[in-house]
Structures are given as structure tokens and as C-alpha cells.
Hints:
Blueprint: E1 2-7, H1 20-27, E2 32-37, E3 50-52, E4 60-62, H2 64-75, E5 82-86, H3 95-101, E6 106-111, H4 119-124, E7 128-130, H5 141-152, H6 162-166, E8 185-186, E9 189-190, H7 200-218, H8 220-226
Helix pairs in contact: 7-8
Amino acid sequence: xxxxxxxxxxxxxxxxxxxxxxxxxxxxxxxxxxxxxxxxxxxxxxxxxxxxxxxxxxxxxxxxxxxxxxxxxxxxxxxxxxxxxxxxxxxxxxxxxxxxxxxxxxxxxxxxxxxxxxxxxxxxxxxxxxxxxxxxxxxxxxxxxxxxxxxxxxxxxxxxxxxxxxxxxxxxxxxxxxxxxxxxxxxxxxxxxxxxxxxxxxxxxxxxxxxxxxxxxxxxxxxxxxx
Length: 227
């Protein structure tokens, strides 16, 4: 998979993409992440990428030309399955979306900044818009890093134990059951006996019941989605 990220602050993404699971995927050649500074595509002599909004009010708006030039430059080199815009006024990222994106080959992610981008970019170039929650960040860079992380870990070979990602919370619209490790008893706090039984069938039944119980307590809306 190749992911191209368009941003005015490429430095913000240096650390997230050079450590842990994402670095492992890059080292294995399973993913190729390229970060592009939108300013380098600006035809303004001062490399400006923003201007005042016609509607007035506080805040600047990202202009069309640098973004269009950046997208067209990338599209001249390969076909893209998705051009994603990170913005708080979009549908919220879900595990289902991450699963879908993990099957794509080439993706562009545009990071919003200031008061956002000129609407004509959204109307004519963007194929999908994603938010990571009902709050506003100073830019879309950290949100883009979250999307990349959620997608990359699903690509076969990135995580050593590929079944691990398939049992994460939200994969079946259920939260994960409790997990325990050694020692079996610590300061009188014991691991549930069923997990020490060695009976795989009963353990799986326990996990499913606990996953349902926790989901019903914490996120009953997820169970409604299954109905």
C-alpha cells in the first residue's frame, strides 16, 4: 500500500511514521508513506497557501492552486483509490472504515489547516472525508496519523500475529473482553478460573459473554448496529 499525505506541517508526521508498527511495515516493504509539503506546490512568490475567506470572519482558508497542483502531480504518477480529506465536519472514523481502507492500494490524505480548505477542493477532488471525533484540532496531521495507524495494522504481515487485529474491539461491533497474564494470583487478585482450565471451547464462550456484557454496559449503541 502507498499513502501520500499532503500537509503544510510535514515535520509533525516525522515521529509517528518512524516508530513501532508503522516503521515495521515500512521496513518490510509492505507500506510506502510519503509526506508532501503543500507549500512546495504554491505558485505564490512567498509560497503562501492560505487567504481570507470571502464570507469574512476570523481565520484563513487553504487556497485551491497548491492543493490542486499537488494532487494532480501525484495522480500523474499513479491511480489513487481514495483522496481523503481530514476534517472535523465529516463522518467519524470507525473500524469498518479502517477495514475497508486497508484493502486499497493507493491513497492520498489531505490534512486540513486554518479554517479548512476552499470548498471547491472538496467538491471536485475529495472522494472521502473523515473525522476522528467531535472536536477541533489545529490541523489534520495528527488525525491523519491516527487513520494511517488504524489502517496499516490491518495489512497482513505488519503485525506479527495477524489474528490479533481480527480480535480487536469493534471488529464485530463488540468491545474486547478482559485480558489477563501471569501471575495467576497477585495480592489476592485472581485470574478467572475458566481461563486456567485449558478448555478452549469454554474459554471462547466466556470471552464472547464478557465482550457482550462490556459492550452492553459501555457502548450499547454498538449492539443496536447489529440489530
